[in-house]
Specification:
2 copies of one chain form a homodimer.
Chain A (H helix, E strand, L loop, with lengths): L2 H8 L3 H32 L2 E6 L2 E6 L4 H30 L6 H34 L14 H33 L4 H4 L2
Antiparallel strand pairs in A: 1-2
Helix pairs in contact in A: 1-2, 2-3, 2-5, 3-4, 4-5
InterPro entries (chains A, B): CASP/CASPL, CASP_dom
Keywords (chains A, B): Cell membrane, Membrane, Transmembrane, Transmembrane helix
GO cellular component, one term (chains A, B): plasma membrane
Chain lengths: 192, 192
């Protein structure tokens, strides 16, 4: 279903075309968030590496760093949430419904905002932890670990990149839901 | 100037009352951001502690942790930005002007959003670094430092709390600027 067809179906108004385009973009973004979120959580959650130091075996896991645990949980949450929201978007596209309910728009806006900030906070904390893991913090005698657990660190890096893509999409989606909410308070309506 | 007087001056419309209230809130928030931002940057930037380990003197400074440097820079930036924006708000309140220029609204919205995410990322990274400093990460042989540099850590903690307040205000302000922007695209206008 191209945006053009939707516009005709809707009656050809400028607003309708904009609405259907926005909804298409929103569906694509929500699907991307879901995919990248699952990818990030899986890459980091299933990451482990065993190394032998003389006779001692040591295993690196994501649970060794609280920031990575937080990242896995946040990305799992945002992926599940985006799946639900994606289904809602598709259903409203098929029905041709336009979001006019303020309570619903407020709920979506609030959740999107909260999750955008949550995923960003999780990614920032993970990047900080990963940065210490990669380069160490010699002033504090925190030694870098990534020379020992190279495979583990590479996979964490891939997960963090994926989580960063989740953030970008989530930020865009939360702007779209802000648009959907606040245009309900349009200037033209308020004139007394 | 109370919101009531402004409403009368504006003509008494519901929208005008809402507008003047929002502007008041925005000014208060922008001033709070400026104050807390300067406080956070100062608390962390001027924090240092010297300790003697046997004959070796060691100095803890915020530059020992990249996350704290990032936090100081981010809070300095957001404080300066909020000062400028606060002055703009006050001027537009005194003039009784309503923001109707889309380009300007987009610029303010984009800057607010960017700085809200930036301050949050900086705070999250600093909290992660502070958490390692406070509790260590024994699995990775990163030892806690805060038992050695107690005064330094307390002050960093105060700075982080202040930075967190900046985040909260910045998130609220960015919602207000989203409101100011997107209601310009009000539904009522778009009907063809």
């Amino acid at each position: 279903m191209s945006p053009g067809t939707v516009a005709v179906y809707y009656g050809g108004g400028k607003l309708r075309v904009l609405d259907s385009r926005m909804k298409m973009i929103e569906v694509v973004l929500r699907c991307a968030i879901c995919a990248f979120g699952v990818l990030a959580a899986a890459l980091i959650g299933f990451d482990s590496q065993v190394r032998k130091f003389f006779s001692v075996e040591k295993k690196a896991r994501f649970t060794d760093m609280k920031a990575l645990v937080f990242l896995v949980i946040a990305n799992g949450m945002v992926a599940s949430y985006s799946l639900i929201q994606g289904v809602r978007c598709v259903v409203s596209m098929v029905n041709g419904a336009v979001l006019l309910d303020k309570a619903m728009a407020w709920a979506i806006f609030s959740c999107d905002q909260a999750l955008a900030y949550l995923t960003l906070a999780a990614a920032a904390a993970a990047i900080q932890a990963a940065q210490i893991g990669q380069f160490g913090q010699p002033e504090l005698q925190w030694m870098k670990m990534c020379n020992l657990y190279e495979k583990f660190c590479t996979q964490v890096g891939e997960g963090v990149v994926s989580a960063f893509l989740v953030c970008l999409c989530m930020v865009t989606v939360s702007s779209i839901s802000a648009f959907n909410l606040f245009r309900l308070y349009g200037k033209a309506k308020g004139k007394s």
